[in-house]
Amino acid sequence: MKIYSYPKVNLFLKITGFKDGYHQIISRFLLVEDIFDEIEFRKKDKSGSFNIIGFDFAVEQNLIYKVYKKIEHLKGVKEFFTHHEIVVTKKIPQGGGLGGGSSNAGSFLNLTNEVLDLKLSKDELSYFAKNVGADIPFFIHGYKCANVSGFGEIVEEFYDADFKVKLFTNSIHCDTATVYKNYKSKFFSPINDEEFEYYKNLKLNEFLTTHDSFKANDLYKSAVDLYPKLLDFKKDNLYFSGSGSTFFEVIHD
Fold first, then answer.
1. Which pLDDT score, from 0 to 100, does residue 252 have?
2. Which residues are tagged catalytic?
3. How far apart are CA 74 and CA 65, in angstroms?
4. How are strands ordered across the β-sheet holding 163-168?
5. Quick one: pLDDT band at residue 1, thresholds 50, 70, 90?
6. In Å, what is the CA distance from 232 to each residue of 60, 170, 188?
7. pLDDT digits (tens, 9 = 90+) for 14-64
């Protein structure tokens, strides 16, 4: 009982508003398939409480645990995880803007749905992830390329030219909440409805000839403001994913 958990990059990330304490966005998510975590459900030697192996922080802080708490009332779920533990083999860098934690949570929900034959749709699984992690619905749907908007709950598959993503990671850990808070304080400038429609329909070829990191990602200024050493890793052909710190190159046909 094993599943791969892939990261993502944000081709662009534009802020559209702020409501109920959260930022609203329009972003193009690209799935990265040449690096992944592995999530396995393994039989316990002895029955016990819900457990996750593979992290150096408390189980209760893990997004996997948080989405588990949303579904533990469903038939068979709590009983199954009394006898099975979750083993995560991490390869996706943490704090890199790649959505590794959200990907783990989405993959956990998909595997639980399959193994326990819960017969839940992707939208139903996404509902359980509501208010846990904004990126989780994208990973539940598993699209290679999608527009993600609202608070992250609106996921629409987007068809574009074939592409590959090359990651450039570094040792800087960007705290997502801090980057967003700094953006709200110093750089808040949401796009309008016309710009929203432009980005929703923007094709990869046009994007690559019209955007750099600052124009593509509204959080980049905030991240650089907080972590100036990010500029040491910036190159002209690279873009910045999410709240950082990973840069990436898009290679397309």
1. 83
2. 8, 135
3. 15
4. 163-168, 247-252, 239-240
5. confident
6. 35, 10, 25
7. 999 999 999 999 999 999 999 999 999 999 999 999 999 999 889 999 999
Structural domains of the chain ordered from first start = 2-252 (3.30.230.10)
Residues facing residue 19 across a β-bridge: 22
pTM of the shown model: 0.95
The C-alpha atoms of residue 9 and residue 209 are separated, in whole angstroms, by: 18
pLDDT in tens, 136-175: 999 999 999 999 999 999 999 999 989 999 999 999 999 9
Distance of CA 151 to the CA centre of its chain: 12
pLDDT value, residue 95: 79
Q: Which residues are CB-neighbours of 183 under 8 A, at least 6 positions away? A: 15, 23, 218, 219, 221, 222
